Amino acid sequence: MKNREEYIDKLATQLKEWSAKIDDLEAKARTAKDDVRTKYDKNIHELKDQRDAAMKKLQELRGASGEAWDTMRSGAEKAWENLRTAFAEAKQKFEKKEESK
């Protein structure tokens, strides 16, 4: 059971870190020019959608019974990978936009 709790705690911590990064991106977007801000906002919206899906998986994981744990864990890992990929892609887009200023 301890491994399960540690795993859930690790995911919750990572989710908090990603939420903070989204906040940072939103702050950068507010200082961008209008045309660039629109693109930032779209990327941020996509990240929030991915984060919300990951949050939902985390909640499901917390409530999973012993039998459903492995199945739920697999789904959570997929949601986390999707969010990790979305962050990497957004970071590249933001960096390219910053370089072109």
What features would you describe in this structure?
The chain has one domain (about 1-100). About 90% of the residues lie in helices and about 0% in strands. The protein has helices spanning about 1-30, 35-60, 70-100. α1 (about 1-30) runs antiparallel to α2 (about 35-60) and α2 runs antiparallel to α3 (about 70-100). The longest helix has about 30 residues, at about 70-100.
Strand content: under 5%
Fraction of helical residues: over 70%
Rg for CA atoms: 16 Å
**Low confidence ranges:** none
Roughly what is the average pLDDT, rounded to an integer?
84
Order of helices and strands: HHH
What characteristic shape results from the CA principal axes? elongated
| Count of the separate structural domains | 1
Largest sheet: none
Class from helix and strand fractions? mainly alpha
Total helices: the number is: 3
Number of strands: 0
- N→C terminal distance: 51 Å
Task: Report a brief summary of the structure.
The chain is mostly helical. It has 3 helices and no strands. The chain has one domain.
Jot down its keywords.
mainly alpha, about 100 residues, single chain, elongated
List the helices and strands and how they pair.
Elements: H1 2-31, H2 34-62, H3 69-99
Helix pairs in contact: 1-2, 2-3
